[in-house]
Amino acid sequence: MITVEQAQALCLELVQTGPSETVPLADAQGRTLAAPLQAKRDQPPFSASAMDGYAVQQGDAVQGATLNVIGESAAGHGWQGVVQAGQAVRIFTGAPVPEGADCVVIQENVTANGDQITVDEPASSNINIRPQGADFTRDFKLCAPRVLSSPDLALIAAMNQPDVPVISKPKVALISTGDELLMPGGDPSPNQIIASNVFALHAMLQDAGAEPNILPIAPDTADALDAVLKQASDWGADIIVTIGGASVGDHDLVAPALDRFGVTRSFHKIAMRPGKPLMAGAKGTTAFLGLPGNPVSAIVCGHLFLLPMVRRAMGQTDVLPRAVTARLTAPMPKGGPRAHYMRAVFEEGAENRTVTAFDKQDSSMLTVLANANCLLLRPIDDAAKNAGDPVTIHPIV
Ligand SMILES: Nc1nc2c(c(=O)[nH]1)N[C@H]1C(S)=C(S)[C@@H](COP(=O)(O)OP(=O)(O)OC[C@H]3O[C@@H](n4cnc5c(N)ncnc54)[C@H](O)[C@@H]3O)O[C@H]1N2
Ligand code: MOO
């Protein structure tokens, strides 16, 4: 069986980075900039006052100087004249600094008396002035690719760009398979269970910026599977995800269905727990991921394989799950022949980040996963560990 790292690399090879589209700035958060974006103006576009006070010539900003206030410059309403020696212009934060003035004395440092002020504290040249283009000039470019953060959106707005070219969202079809499954709110017979893991995957995909679509549950027949795979393909899915039916039982029909559909298999089965029956492949530009049905297995594989594929499709380069080090709160026995991604809770202490694995690690137990905030990695054949030893964890919330 191949390792998790090998499987991740193969999964990423199956994915194409999407085409670009133009979206309104307000919708661009988390999207990948697809082409360089150039500023349309300088910022600030004029020398601007950083404080409320008086714009004067620096030579007049000396203690005891009495100056005539000859006008007012407010944000959005500049003063058009030229400030001469012995003169001051009342100015407010964000307002254009008038010609002739090269310093702003803050109002706390003057005494105002009618149309005159007396300077109480001297000020130096250029103080309290933000020069034109201090933040950026019109030759400034935001380079692509770049995952757009919320400050990036403000920056792009200041560049006077209302729309942004970004990589399009990958369409991800989610297909639950199995005669035993029913959607939540249904009326299950005694032998049925509720399709659950698909809702976690849907939420994870939405958070990652993809466009997920929950397709109808496919019962355990070849015809039903073929039909829903076609439905996913007709919808235009970039990634088709099946859930369940991935293992070796008589009713595990996904691998032959993918073969019939013309999918070229990349791998089936990996040295991982939970998630051993994982499979992946591609047909043309469409990637396929066959997740195991056990709820925890499907969701853990979602974090380790599906989200990296989505990030790659969205043009991101840093796609693998974030890995950090934490110290064990309790000893652990020797690891097994599959890499174990244990459900665990980490805490940020003043000195250390610590991690505690749950006792129950069965891949059917959603209560355990719902209380976990990370996966604790035990590599293949990991040596026994003591409390305090460092381990790798992947935060999942
Ligand atoms: N003889 C062997 N048996 C099994 C092996 C093996 O290597 N040899 N592998 C085991 C492992 S590991 C896993 S994981 C499971 C996964 O098998 P499948 O992908 O075929 O999943 P199913 O059999 O369809 O379902 C497993 C389990 O999960 C429930 N399920 C399925 N889909 C959903 C869903 N959408 N929401 C909630 N629960 C779901 C299903 O009812 C089963 O209880 O195979 C082991 N067997
Ligand atoms: O690998 Mo399975 O996913 O252990 O339950």
Describe the protein:
Catalyzes the insertion of molybdate into adenylated molybdopterin with the concomitant release of AMP. The protein is of the alpha/beta class. The chain folds into four domains: 4-17 and 168-313, Molybdenum Cofactor Biosythetic Enzyme, Chain A; 20-41 and 142-166, Alpha-Beta Complex (Molybdopterin biosynthesis moea protein, domain 2); 48-130, Molybdopterin biosynthesis moeA protein, domain 3 (Beta Complex), CATH 2.170.190.11; 324-395, Beta-clip. Helix content is 20%, strand content 30%. The protein has seven helices and 28 strands. It has helices at 4-13, 150-158, 197-208, 222-235, 254-261, 295-313, 366-371, and strands spanning 20-24, 32-33, 37-38, 48-49, 53-56, 66-73, 87-91, 103-106, 110-113, 116-119, 129-130, 141-142, 146-147, 163-167, 171-176, 181-182, 193-194, 211-214, 239-243, 264-268, 272-273, 279-283, 286-291, 324-328, 339-348, 353-357, 374-378, 390-395. A hairpin with a 2-residue loop joins β22 (279-283) and β23. The two termini are 29 Å apart. Molybdate ion (MOO) binds at residues 273-276, 292, 294, 297, 363.
Number of DSSP helices? Answer: 7
How are the strands of the biggest sheet laid out side by side? 8-5-7-6-10-9
- Note the beta-strand portion: 25-35%
Shape: elongated
The parts where pLDDT drops under 50 for at least 5 residues are none
- CATH architecture call of the largest domain: 3-Layer(aba) Sandwich
Bound molecules: ligand LQZAQKY5, molybdate ion
Q: What name goes with the CATH superfamily of the largest domain?
A: MoaB/Mog-like domain
CATH class of the largest domain: Alpha Beta
Report the span from N to C terminus: 29 Å
- The CATH topology of the largest domain: Molybdenum Cofactor Biosythetic Enzyme, Chain A
Structural class: alpha/beta
Q: Averaging pLDDT over every residue, what do you get?
A: 97
- Using DSSP, what is the number of strands? 28
> Residue share in helices?
10-25%
The structural domain count equals 4
